[in-house]
Each structure stands twice: as structure tokens, then as C-alpha cells.
Amino acid sequence: MGDKLNLGVIIGTTREGRWSPVPAKWIADLAAQHGGFEVDLIDLLDAELPQHLAERDMWSTEEDPSESVTKLSERLHRADAFIVVTGEYNLSIPASLKHAIDYYMNEWAAKPVSMITYGGKVSGGQNAAQHLRQVFPELRTMTIRNSIAFPRFFQKFDAQGNFTGFDEVEPEAKKLLDELQWWAKALADARATTALPKPY
């Protein structure tokens, strides 16, 4: 493993009019400037995962998966850490994100993940983050303490349509990246030296 860790920044929403690519690009740029990461910006809209989870695509089988499932699997496998960027829909995560999570198992295991969320309410999408904190441990993925939320994000645009809320949370974003780097290195070293026990 080189000096830099591989970070997958995942755009978790796919619906028309989504805002998630904007904060995803922001945190991806900050991560690239951080110096500790090689960044892969993963848009689930481009992944084109089949809506039907066929037997050949399930993690528990040995049959070759379909091409789109394989392509995303390779990108997730390369990652040493993840940042999931998502809106909150009906107090939870979007179906596109849960669908993508459920397609894979080993790709997520023994890696850290943080969340960046947004929403129209004062919670800023933290209900989605809390649901991810319930889901990821089942995949043996560690959710780190630091996350970022953008509450009522639609209120923070200037006359030119630019979002004005990034500067105020940039110090927290840098702390998030520092913590993510620490856990990513610790877990990458552990994966390199000791096989993860089988879950079942």
C-alpha cells in the first residue's frame, strides 16, 4: 500500500433534482487537498445496478456477477475508507443507497465510513445518518464519530445560486478527514496482516 489511502466518496441519491453531487464534490476536493487520500467519486446514478437482485449477483454465491455489479465491486474493493453523501427521505436513506449497500458484503468489511447528510428540516438529514449507523455494522464496517449535516440547506444560496454553507463547516470537515485517515490506516494495516474472521 502506498502512502495515500483510497477514499470512495459515494453519491447516494439518484433522483432527479438531487443536490448530493454538490457536497460530494466539495468533500472530494477537500479530501484531495488533505494529502492523505486518493479520491474516487462514485455516483450511484452511473453505477446502473440492476433493480432486481439476481442470485448470480448476491455476495454469498460464487457465480460470476453481472458487469455493472462487477464494476462497482472493483471500486468498492479498492477503497480503504468511504464517505457517503446523501439526502434524507422520509426520515431515512434513499432506496438507491440501501440497494447498493445490499449488493455487497466483503467490499465494505473492516473499513471506516463517515456520512455527510442534508435535508429540509433542522436535523439536516441526521435520521439518514443514524440509519446508516445501524446498517453498516452488519457489514462489519465501522462508522466513525464525525459526520457533517446541512440543515435546511436550501436557505443558504446566494443570488448567483451558489451554496454559502461550506466555509462554516470546513474546519469540521478537516477533522472528519483526519479521523477517517487514522481509522483507514489502522484497518488497512490490520487487513494486511490478519485475515478477518468469517462472519458465520
TrEMBL record:
Gene3D superfamilies: 3.40.50.360. It comes from the Bacteria. Residues 7-153 form the NADPH-dependent FMN reductase-like domain. One of its GO terms (molecular function) is oxidoreductase activity. GO terms for cellular component: cytosol. This is NAD(P)H-dependent oxidoreductase. Coiled coil: none annotated. InterPro entries: Flavoprotein-like_sf, FMN_Rdtase-like_dom, NAD(P)H-dep_reductase. It holds the Pfam family FMN_red.
